[in-house]
Amino acid sequence: MTFQWTAAATFLYGEIGVLLVLCLPFISPLRWQKIFMIPLWSKMAVFWNKMFLTIIVLLIVLFIDAVREVRKYSAVHVMEKAVNVNANAFDHIQMKLFRSQRNLYISGFSLFLWLVLRRTVTLLTQLAKGMASHAALETQVNDATEAAKKYMSENERLQEALSEKGSDKESSEVTDETLKKEVERLKAELQKTSNALHKANHEVIVVKKQSEGLKREYDHLMKEYERLQKSLNEAENKKEL
After folding, report:
1. Do the beta carbons of residue 88 and residue 143 sit within 8 Å?
2. Which of 75, 104, 145, 232 can bridge 66 by disulfide, Cβ–Cβ 3.0-4.6 Å?
3. CB 73 within 8 A of CB 97
4. Residue 59: is its pLDDT beyond 60?
5. pLDDT per residue over 22-46, tens digit each?
């Protein structure tokens, strides 16, 4: 067996082994999803499509070559059998035909299983996502059910409280008056605080304007000082001369 057909046969055996492992019933799709999310596979996923297409092309080329060899030696086999020539030559042609048929099966099954392998991985990934979504939906439904039960019990409790308050109407009116007074007091304090804040903002603006005026005056004085210092230096230089 030549190198390319040895590689093709090895690839076929590898595909069979991987498919058997993927079809094991005790490994769930969620576990396969975790395995597929390993950083090594994430890095390989970038080149997955290119590698898949490259292997498809190679297997198709090998398959076409095997078909050509089968047709070639089939025709020679028929001719040798019809002519009934040397037995050794006939056995040699028959051996060539057997090898070409073997190569045809190897390349054909390799191509078929490669497509099946890709489809299996895709279905496992989709199934894992579906199972995860189903689990999330079940959790949401359970949470919603618990919340609904909680709201129903809260509603019943409020209805009981309202029915109890119906008998104590006078006390509730007194409570309402007290709450209204408290609200009015808080509004008055809020208004007072708002006025104080407005006054403080106004004072800040005034102080800021005064600060800017002082800064301008300071800059003017510094310029005058520099001018006078320059004049004094020039006068001293003239005296020295």
Report:
1. no
2. 104
3. yes
4. yes
5. 888 887 877 777 777 777 666 676 6
Label each residue of the chain as H, E or C.
Answer: CCHHHHHHHHHHHHHHHHHHHHCCCCCCHHHHHHHHCCHHHHHHHCCHHHHHHHHHHHHHHHHHHHHHHHHHHHHHHHHHHHHCCCHHHHHHHHHHHHHHHHHHHHHHHHHHHHHHHHHHHHHHHHHHHHHHHHHHHHHHHHHHHHHHHHHHHHHHHHHHHHHHHHHCHHHHHHHHHHHHHHHHHHHHHHHHHHHHHHHHHHHHHHHHHHHHHHHHHHHHHHHHHHHHHHHHHHHHHHHHC
Pairwise CA distance, residues 129 & 56, whole Å: 27
Q: Which backbone phi and psi does 135 adopt, to 5 degrees?
A: -65, -40
Token pair belonging to 169: 């109407």
Q: Has this prediction a pTM greater than 0.90?
A: no
Q: In whole angstroms, give the CA distance from residue 238 to residue 50.
A: 89
pLDDT at 175: 66
What is the C-alpha to C-alpha distance for residues 211 and 204, in angstroms, rounded to an integer?
A: 10
- The whole-number pLDDT of residue 152 equals 74
Give percent of the chain with pLDDT exceeding 90: 6
Contact of 110 with 59, CB cutoff 8 Å: yes
What is the token pair recorded at 97?
Answer: 């035909």
End-to-end Cα spacing for the chain? 112
Contact between 2 and 97 (Cβ < 8 Å): no
